[in-house]
């Protein structure tokens, strides 16, 4: 019996995504687990106003941003042979969306990159730290390499 049956790789499209992805791919191959991929769009251009959240009228900008993110997700997924049916591009807060998809898809392990921050950055939290504390499954925080 495998320790992990379904691994979710959380990508942030940083320069070190491939480093984290290689770890997730090797772990999935070693355990025979299915590998899935998620990227969360958390910088939706919708400013708050006294009357509520304003959705920008520049649809082309939002559309092109979305298309660019889709392309990046598919390039990463294709590079690591991740089934297109197991790739998610969602809008929201990363910790909530990553843990939501993990529960929905019955993921055993979430793999995220971590900068290993200390001090104020640790107090403010990071996506890896938030996922670690909110996920109902195991979380592997891959220490990112210094730039």
Task: Give me the secondary-structure category.
Answer: alpha/beta
Strand line-up across the major sheet = 5-2-1-6-7
Gross morphology is globular
What's the average pLDDT?
83
Tally of strands: 7
Q: What is the first-to-last residue Cα distance?
A: 39 Å
Query: Which segments are poorly predicted (pLDDT under 50) over 5 or more consecutive residues?
Result: 118-124
What is the alpha-carbon Rg in Å?
Answer: 16 Å
**Number of discrete helical segments:** 5
Percentage of helical residues? 40-55%
What is the succession of H and E elements? EHEEEHEHEHHE
Oligomeric grouping of the chains = single chain
List the SSEs and their pairings.
Blueprint: E1 6-10, H1 17-31, E2 34-41, E3 48-49, E4 52-53, H2 59-79, E5 87-91, H3 94-104, E6 109-114, H4 120-124, H5 127-134, E7 138-143
Parallel strand pairs: 1-2, 1-6, 2-5, 6-7
Antiparallel strand pairs: 3-4
Summarize this structure briefly:
Helices cover 41% and strands 23% of the residues. It is α/β, with parallel strands linked by helices and 147 residues long. A five-stranded parallel beta sheet has the order 5-2-1-6-7, sandwiched between helices. Strands 3-4 form a two-stranded antiparallel sheet.
